[in-house]
Design a protein that fits this description.
Blueprint: H1 3-9, H2 18-27, E1 29-33, E2 38-40, E3 48-54, E4 56-62, E5 68-75, E6 78-80, H3 82-87, E7 94-97, E8 101-107, H4 108-117, H5 120-145, H6 147-164, E9 172-173, H7 177-184, H8 188-200, E10 204-207, H9 209-215, E11 226-229, H10 232-239
Antiparallel strand pairs: 1-8, 2-7, 3-6, 3-8, 4-5, 4-7, 9-11, 10-11
Length: 246
């Protein structure tokens, strides 16, 4: 896929005129990252935003006490690093590739030029930020219900991202207990208890490496251990504390 096609897929440049896309295309710099490499570092100065064109990244933040909290995952097409670029501040989180990632970097100077010339970009940016605020609000609601709701929200969010990205078998989430501990800031015992409860209610199935291999689905490059969603509507009912019997 060409850079131009990548830009046309990005929510940041949706419905822009052809000359605007050409302007951005000339300004971006392509970067590639291997799994485990850092795209953006917390507290570093924000000089450029990244347009993720392929792959998946993990967004996390380390507290003053040194504890890492995973804020979520982003699949292509996605934009990261735009807030620090806009307000000329330090990064508020780190972004790390969890598989090979290709990204287009757009530096602040060029981004400002594009926004001034094509104000439509500001509307697209507003939509991106509004969606994130909505997600944060939904997550806060889930956290206020109980741990089961919080986990259900995290699982559903990742499922929907994988579905939108066209990932094969989007309902299979390559997450370990450690991943969920970091995502929910919960103990291993709590994560195990909640997963057992969700399994008992036939909402999810915890999948092991051996069971994936037996079923012939062991094609995740060593990441076969994960969670298979069985009932998305049931999980959503848990998120918002709805009565599943109705």
């Amino acid at each position: 896929m060409s850079r131009r096609d990548d830009l046309l897929r990005s929510p940041l440049f949706k419905d822009l005129p052809a000359d605007a896309i050409s302007m951005v295309e000339r300004a971006v710099t392509e970067r590639r990252y291997e799994a485990g490499e850092t795209l953006l570092s917390q507290e570093a100065q924000g000089e450029a935003l990244h347009i993720i064109t392929s792959g998946v990244v993990r967004v996390s933040r380390v507290s003053v006490g040194g504890r890492e909290r995973v804020l979520g995952y982003l699949y292509a097409p996605a934009v990261v690093g735009e807030i620090a670029v806009l307000v000329t501040s330090e990064r508020v989180a780190s972004v790390v590739a969890i598989e090979p990632v290709r990204a287009l970097m757009l530096y602040r100077e060029h981004f400002v030029q594009v926004m001034r010339r094509y104000p439509e970009v500001l509307w697209n940016l507003a939509r991106v930020l509004a969606e994130r605020v909505t997600q944060i609000n939904d997550e806060l609601i889930a956290l206020g219900v109980n741990t089961e709701a919080a986990m259900s929200y995290a699982l559903l969010t990742l499922y929907r991202q994988r579905l939108a990205a066209g990932v094969k078998d989007p309902a299979f989430l390559p997450l370990t207990q450690g991943d969920l501990m970091a995502r929910l800031s919960s103990s291993r015992e709590t994560i195990s208890r909640v997963l057992r409860k969700l399994e008992e209610e036939r909402l999810v199935k915890v999948v092991t490496l051996s069971s994936r291999a037996k079923s012939g689905d062991d094609d995740e490059g060593g990441r076969a251990t994960g969670i298979q969603l069985l009932d998305e509507e049931g999980l959503e009912a848990l998120v918002f504390g709805l009565d599943r019997t109705q």
